[in-house]
Amino acid sequence: MITLQNLQATEAFAIVIGEVAKASDNLILTGDLGAGKTTLTKGIAKGLEIKQTIKSPTYTIIREYPNGRLPLYHMDVYRIETGAWDLGLDEYFEGDGLCVIEWGKQLEDAVPLDYLELIIEKDSDDENKRQVVLQAFGKQAEDFKKELRKDGSYKMSEEVDVNIREALAKDAEQIVKVSQTIGKQTEFLVMDEHGMDLPIHLLENQLETIYESDKQLLLVAEVDGQILGTASVRTSEEKRISHIGEVGISILQDYWGIGLGSVLLEELIDWSQQIGQIRRLELTVQKQNRRASHLYEKYGFQTEAVLERGAIGDDGRFLDVLLMSKMIDPAS
Q1: Residue 57 · residue 63 · CB < 8 Å
Q2: Cβ contact 125:99 at 8 Å
Q3: I need a surface site. Which of 42, 86, 94, 137 has the fewest CB within 10 A?
């Protein structure tokens, strides 16, 4: 069960659904009137990069939103009593988009062969709190559910007391171990399962140098003394490019989806503005890593180029990489 403590957590969860959805995924929303099924669909549309206003399809049965990363087919079958097969909904279920079906269980025999059911329950004491249960029916739905879990959406509502500070030499061993873990968890980073391949004593020296530098920054995020992510701005000693800061952020998978990436990125941008010497921040991010590229766009980064075959995936396939940048003006 997933606990969504407030409307912001519900929207964040819905956006993740839209971000991980694939063509011909089917999502049935089950819950009482007022449980938030249409509200959830609006967040899903955001995750699909759909700009249109989402309206309830109560009286039209289906509304189509084709202009996103995937088409969204939003259905409300509450008033369908008979003849569901005659509506031709199966063409949508097996089509090129994501089907979100409110009251989908009422389709009975016409229900999709493969679907993920999202059961929404209202909290009796808090009108903004929701409990959500995911039930997968079929192989594709099971994969859909795993992607949601892998993204860390179930962590969104948990209270996490995270401390963010500058890295110290004593953090070297933990940083290496965390980098190795993250390298195993995702192919989104340059690091593989070997993580940061650097002897501890050399990393300790580097951390001391970065800590003393007024043009480089390495932050660690920690919970109860355990490091769970890092964020950095690195610069060059070469005069002609010394104004450029290279951004890097990596977070353990269990802490994806709780807003930690936003907090770390804000810290890096604020620091860059305060020191007054960095005038350009740049980074590379795999095109398939939509959650990260959306985050950077939110904070003003723009895509300058697509680097074809910029990385190699775990299975040997070539991956496109985005070069993104943000111009920095000193804080006034």
Answers
A1: yes
A2: no
A3: 86
pLDDT at 84 over 70: no
Relative to beta strand 226-234, strand 244-251 is: antiparallel
pLDDT tens across 176-221, in order? 999 989 888 888 877 555 446 678 999 999 999 999 999 999 999 9
Contact 62, 74 (CB under 8 A): yes
Q: pLDDT per residue over 29-59, tens digit each?
A: 988 777 778 888 899 999 999 988 887 766 6
The CA distance from 110 to 116, in Å, is: 15
Evaluated on CA atoms 13, 14, 19, 23, the torsion sign reads positive
Whole-structure pTM value? 0.60
Token reading at 83: 């003849």
Q: Which helix (H) or strand (E) holds 326?
A: strand 318-327
Q: How far apart are CA 182 and CA 193, in angstroms?
A: 8
d(CA 289, CA 256): 13
Q: Which two tokens stand for residue 38?
A: 């249409």
Tell me the helix, strand and coil percentages in the chain, rounded to 5.
Answer: 35, 30, 35
Q: In what order do the strands lie in the sheet with 62-65?
A: 2-4, 130-137, 115-122, 26-30, 98-102, 72-76, 62-65
